[in-house]
């Protein structure tokens, strides 16, 4: 934005300090002048002020004498106050505004693309230190988000390039070998194309959640959990996994579509990354104080605790977890879950179970419970 040049904040503060000091000095001199005039006679009166203390008589000065002696001294004092105020105000304003100068310099450095710079202002806590600390925190978050976006872009490009490269290879093979079975080629192309579509849709969903571009409405987590379980029940039965949904009415505010996708991802992951047979998946919802809680717990192979933080990052797969060709996923399942939870101002907690498997706990902002008995639908 183009602005007309104006006075600097330091000069404005200097003028303010000097003006205030000059005004205070003038008021003080005026009070002294009025106070003294009360006790002095007018110079045109031939009588003089006499105060008698016993036999001694004292004759005082008149107003004319005081005016001739007081006015030059007052003018000199005011001039001194003006010079002192300007000089002292300039020095004090410079010291007071020094933290702002450092913050402005850091902001210019950040605007040029360097987000690694930090102010690290020392000293006791005050408004300027609080502003500097908040600016450092903002830069740290921006640097982390930019690095995450760059890493995500690289991974997404790699993941999208894979199905395209496979498609190109299949088409080249079909062109070089016209006698090849077309049915097999079409089936493989269909599989690769489906994976590319799923990946693209997942990327779009992740972007939508990150931008928070959705309409918020009242959502019942218990109904969402039942819908997700009903949809994925055939997959659970095929893998001989017991799928249970428990809990009560648990309301929150958000996007029903995004929350459903979040629960679907959690339940599908819990089914796929489970025991080969005889495993269990439990989905539980409950209102707790001012939060709505969703828990998804599954059996499975032991999961190292140091591996858990990487599960919510895009395209980061736990190599120790069992994966099948039937449902390989696109590497964005828990990343989408994390993004949806963050977009709804909630928290996500992943805890490895001692006996194997994972416990996922999601807390979303709750809504006041219904006044009807038991909170029934």
From TrEMBL:
Keywords (A to Z) from UniProt: Kinase, Membrane, Phosphoprotein, Transferase, Transmembrane, Transmembrane helix, Two-component regulatory system
EC number(s) from the headed UniProt entry: 2.7.13.3
**Spans traversing the lipid bilayer:** 20-40, 70-93
PROSITE patterns recorded: HAMP, HIS_KIN
User: What top-tier enzyme class does this entry carry?
Assistant: transferase
- Report the main location listed first in the record: membrane
Matching PANTHER family, A to Z?
SENSOR HISTIDINE KINASE TRCS, SENSOR HISTIDINE KINASE YKOH
Return the protein name: histidine kinase
């Amino acid at each position: 934005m183009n602005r007309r040049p104006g006075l600097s904040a330091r000069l404005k503060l200097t003028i303010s300090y000097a003006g205030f000091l000059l005004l205070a000095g003038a008021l003080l001199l005026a009070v002294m002048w009025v106070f003294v005039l009360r006790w002095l006679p007018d110079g045109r009166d031939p009588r003089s002020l006499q105060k008698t203390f016993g036999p001694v008589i004292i004759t005082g000065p008149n107003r004319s004498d005081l005016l001739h002696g007081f006015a030059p001294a007052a003018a000199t004092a005011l001039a001194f106050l003006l010079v002192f105020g300007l000089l002292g105000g300039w020095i004090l304003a410079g010291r007071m505004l020094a933290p702002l100068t450092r913050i402005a310099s850091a902001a210019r450095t950040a605007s040029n693309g360097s987000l690694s710079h930090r102010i690290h202002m020392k000293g006791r806590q005050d408004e300027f230190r609080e502003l500097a600390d908040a600016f450092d925190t903002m830069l740290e978050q921006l640097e982390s988000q930019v690095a995450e976006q760059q890493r995500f872009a690289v991974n997404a490009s790699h993941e999208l390039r894979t199905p395209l490269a496979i498609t190109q290879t299949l088409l080249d093979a079909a062109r070089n070998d016209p006698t090849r079975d077309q049915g097999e080629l079409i089936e493989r192309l269909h599989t690769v194309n489906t994976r590319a579509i799923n990946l693209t849709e997942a990327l779009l969903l992740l972007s939508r959640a990150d931008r928070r571009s959705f309409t918020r409405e009242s959502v019942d987590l218990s109904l969402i959990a039942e819908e997700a379980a009903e949809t994925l029940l055939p997959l659970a039965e095929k893998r001989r996994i017991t799928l249970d949904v428990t809990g009560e009415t648990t309301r929150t505010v958000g996007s029903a579509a995004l929350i459903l996708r979040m629960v679907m991802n959690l339940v599908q992951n819990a089914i796929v990354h489970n025991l080969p047979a005889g495993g269990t998946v439990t989905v539980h919802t409950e209102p707790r104080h001012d939060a709505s809680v969703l828990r998804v717990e599954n059996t499975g192979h032991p999961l190292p605790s140091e591996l858990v933080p990487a599960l919510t990052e895009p395209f980061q797969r736990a190599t120790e977890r069992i994966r099948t060709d039937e449902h390989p996923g696109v590497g964005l399942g828990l990343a989408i879950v994390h993004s949806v939870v963050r977009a709804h101002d909630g928290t996500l907690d992943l805890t490895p179970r001692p006996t194997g498997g994972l416990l996922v706990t999601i807390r979303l902002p709750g809504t006041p419970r219904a006044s009807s008995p038991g909170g029934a639908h």
